[in-house]
Amino acid sequence: GNVQAGTVTLLATAMPGIDGVSNASAFQNGLDAESDDAFRARFRNFIDSRSRATPLAVEYAIDNIQQGLQFTIQENIDTAGMARLGNFVVTVDDGSGSPSASLLTTVTAAIEAVRPLGSTFTVQPPTVVMANVSLAIMTAPGALRAPVVAAVTAAISAYINALPIGAALPASRRAQLAYAAHPDVANAGQFQINSAYADAVPSNSGVIRAGLVSVN
């Protein structure tokens, strides 16, 4: 969990030579406990994976590594997207767009334990597609513009950065996000993604992340 600096001060078990503890830095990036729905889905995958050597077995192996992992499994292709029988590619993301080498190694080891005999596989990070977004908004009469712009910018950035692997960014979605971000948004238009009036669509192993979000 997330805790402030200097708040971890008790030892759960006495240790010889250690009188006390303290965390000099805050703990950040904690996750909520696993939800009941997530646990049920993971347990169903556990039951279905008992035969091993199946996509569900691979999914269950990855799900057990840590919470919050996103992944896709593509069969009979190589990392370039070309046909390659007996090979599968697993694209993994921890939400950052740049999972660590140690995480990819852990995923590889977990899959190795359940992969089909005679198959080969690759574990890779996603290809990050930066989305520079611009739009224009009108605010309600008498409204302070700065907090409205800040709220719309934050809402669009958060939405983009939460997109899973392979998910597109529809241009029309930004109007909905703008209106929902603040009640003083009276109108929204002139949507562009990377200077184009079109949706941003990544590859099956790509993930879109927010670049510059300009709200005028």
Report on the structure:
The protein has 216 residues and is an alpha/beta fold. The protein has five helices and six strands. The strands form two sheets. The protein has a three-stranded mixed β-sheet. Strands 5-4-6 form a three-stranded mixed β-sheet. Helix 1 crosses helix 2 (55-63) and helix 4 packs across helix 5 (173-181). The chain is flat, with a radius of gyration of 22 Å.
Widest sheet: strand ordering: 1-2-3
How much strand content do the residues show? 25-35%
Question: Judging from the principal axes of the Cα atoms, what is the shape?
Answer: flat
Largest sheet: 3 strands, mixed
Helix content: 25-40%
Number of strands: 6
> Helices and strands: which structural class?
alpha/beta
Distance between the termini: 37 Å
H/I helix tally? 5
User: What is the gyration radius calculated from CA atoms?
Assistant: 22 Å
Task: Name the average pLDDT.
Answer: 90
Outline the low-pLDDT stretches: none
SSE sequence, one letter per element? HHEEHEEHHEE
Summarize this structure as a short list of keywords or feature phrases.
216 residues; alpha/beta; 3-stranded mixed β-sheet; 6 strands; 28% helix
Layout of helices and strands:
Layout: H1 36-48, H2 55-63, E1 70-77, E2 83-93, H3 101-112, E3 120-124, E4 127-139, H4 145-161, H5 173-181, E5 185-193, E6 206-215
Helix pairs in contact: 1-2, 4-5
